[in-house]
Amino acid sequence: MARKGTVVIDQELCKGCLLCVHFCPRDVLEADTRPNSTGTYPSKAVHRENCIACGNCFEICPDLCIRVYALESTEKEPNYVQG
Question: Which CATH number fits domain 4-82: 3.40.50.1980, 1.20.1560.10, 3.40.190.10, 3.30.70.20?
Answer without folding.
Answer: 3.30.70.20
